Amino acid sequence: MQRIGIDRHACVLGAGIAGLATAYALERQGWQVTVIDQGPVGGGASGGNGAQLSYSYVQPLADASVWGQLPRLLFSPDSPLKLRPQWSLSQWRWGAAFLAACNDATSRRTTGTLLDLAAHSRQVFERLREREGLDCDFTRTGKLVLYRSREALAAGERQMALQRAWGCEQEAVSAARCVELEPALAHGADRIVGAIHTPSECAADCQQVCDGLHARLAARGMRFLLGMQLQGFERGAHGAISAVRLRSSAPGAPSVETRVTADHFVLALGSASADWAARLGASVPVYPLKGYSITVDAPAGAAWAPRVNVTDAARKVVFARLGQRLRVAGMAELVGDDRSIPADRIERLRAAVAAVLGHDPGEGARLHPWTGMRPATPTGLPVAGRRSGGPGNLWLHTGHGALGFTLSFGTGERLAEAMGR
């Protein structure tokens, strides 16, 4: 492993999984690193995410099938996709670019790129878990993507054939075989036409990964400035960033302003990265894709709780076992930076547990409702590296959409390697 001089200092803005993966990779290469966030580690789109590590099933949201589904996706009251048009040029620009990407050629190219990055990310994360001894409820129990119509299953089989060309081990299975692989699906088996089974897929608790990395990196001397709001950037010679200005955001505490100097700056602020990059002259095609999750108690003997990861393609809902809990997550909303949690969205996830698994998970605080603003690009490809128009010492790590946990470690390592050249 190539190591650079310890005198080089990188400032990573964002302590979600993307920022922490980058900070870890930089530390491994010998950088001095400061990590800054306005909240706790994992406090944005990372902590309550779907928990699935989809290394082999990466179908982009931008797919040719979207055109046929568009009326239902936009106007049906039970649609897993919701669009609230706003007076926002960025929203309309993103939406137009997304629809332009909804074609077979773009989807095939995106799938290939994502699978390559996911395979690398799997290797990086596995080495990290072994090296650091992370306790994160990691499992490798495979995944079933359920389809409820012949047409949808046929589309899934086409995606499977494409992924197989990249070496992914997958097979189409019947509803009966789904129940053999995961008995918890017996309740709703009569509504399953078939599924795609990927035996190598994994799951883990992203918040535990974030907390574990924070503890280990801080113990090794990495500087973390949490509870600090980004106020702006200072520019130096030739337009390079010389410092960031910060203000403490701890509730009830007096406001304190400070600045941090560094040689390089990484924007890993999720969907907020686009706005800050624009202020520095760089265009970043990232828009928040809002999702929700609930986390349900699932004791070891709970027969209703699946151990295999499950994705209900029609509902756009995923199920992942995390120790003695079940994470249920899904939906995608283009509603701007709205962090409210409407009761009907949580009820929809609760209803999905009842419909798919035949279990009533309860209500209210017992569900641990959560929302996160996934930073999404129109194609589904992440943004990693420098951007045209931006300062030469500004780097981006964002835009993973629903695959942030899956891709961040591979992207972070490649970004750190590029920064060290």
* CA distance, first residue to last residue: 13 Å
State the major sheet: 9 strands, mixed
Helix content: 25-40%
Q: Please give the count of helices.
A: 10
Radius of gyration: 21 Å
What share of the residues does DSSP label as strand, in percent? 25-35%
Low-confidence stretches: 1-6
Envelope shape: globular
Mean pLDDT: 92
The tally of strands reads 20
Instruction: Kindly name the structural category.
Output: alpha/beta
SSE run: EHEEHEHHEHEHEEHEEEEEHEEEEHEEEH
Walk me through this protein's architecture.
- The protein is α/β, with parallel strands linked by helices.
- Helix content is 33%, strand content 25%.
- It contains ten helices and 20 strands.
- The strands form four sheets. Strands 4, 5, 6, 7, 14, 15, 16, 17 and 18 form a nine-stranded mixed sheet that branches. The chain has a six-stranded mixed sheet with strand order 9-2-1-13-20-19, with helices on both faces.
- A hairpin with a 5-residue loop joins strand 10 (228-235) and strand 11.
- It is globular, with a radius of gyration of 21 Å.
- The two termini are 13 Å apart.
Topology at a glance:
Blueprint: E1 9-13, H1 17-28, E2 32-37, E3 52-53, H2 66-75, E4 81-83, H3 89-100, H4 104-132, E5 143-147, H5 150-164, E6 171-173, H6 175-181, E7 194-198, E8 202-203, H7 206-219, E9 223-226, E10 228-235, E11 241-248, E12 257-261, E13 264-267, H8 273-279, E14 287-297, E15 309-312, E16 317-322, E17 325-334, H9 343-357, E18 370-376, E19 383-385, E20 394-398, H10 404-419
Parallel strand pairs: 1-2, 1-13, 2-9, 4-17, 5-15, 13-20
Antiparallel strand pairs: 3-8, 5-7, 6-7, 10-11, 11-12, 14-17, 14-18, 15-16, 16-17, 19-20
Helix pairs in contact: 1-7, 1-10, 4-10
